[in-house]
Amino acid sequence: xxxxxxxxxxxxxxxxxxxxxxxxxxxxxxxxxxxxxxxxxxxxxxxxxxxxxxxxxxxxxxxxxxxxxxxxxxxxxxxxxxxxxxxxxxxxxxxxxxxxxxxxxxxxxxxxxxxxxxxxxxxxxxxxxxxxxxxxxxxxxxxxxxxxxxxxxxxxxxxxxxxxxxxxxxxxxxxxxxxxxxxxxxxxxxxxxxxxxxxxxxxxx
Length: 205
What we know:
Strand content: 15-25%
Distance between the termini: 52 Å
Structural class: alpha/beta
Number of strands: 9
Radius of gyration: 19 Å
C-alpha cells in the first residue's frame, strides 16, 4: 500500500471496511457489524467459520469500490453460498453434523476449519483428516495441524497418511463409531485425497 499510486481500501478487524461485534451461531455462522465508507450494515452469513467474515468484508470492499449500493451488497451476502465441498454442512437423521470441506487443504485452512467446529454447539468433535499436498515441509505442516486439533480438544482421525503423527485409521468410519446428537465431524484434505467418499458413506450409509 505504501508503494502504490493506486487508491487503497483496507478491510478486516480494522481498516476502511471494519468488522465488529462478531458472533457465531450454533453452526458457527458469522453475524457481525460492518462499518464502511458507505455506511454501517448488519451482516448474517449462511456459511460457517469466523474466517468467512473476513471474506465477506473483502467482498463488500470490492462491491463498494465499484459503486454497488451497500444494502444490495449485504443482501447478496446473506444468500451467498460457497462452492461444493467447502464447509458444506449436512445434518444426519441421528442429529450428528457432518462438515464436508474436502475440496482443498493447507495448514491455514485446516486451522480455520478446526476453529469453526470448536465454535459449533457440540459435545464431541471429530476431524477426519487426509493428506495436505504441495507443502514445502509436509512433516511440519501436518504435525502443526495435529497439535492444533489436540489443543482444541478435537479427536483427530488420520486417513491415508501417517504425517499427522498418529496411526492412520484403516476404516475412518468405523473409527468414528456411532454418531448422534451433539456430534460434529469435519472431513478435510487436499483434493487429491478424495475424502468426499467418506462424506458420502456417512450421509448415505
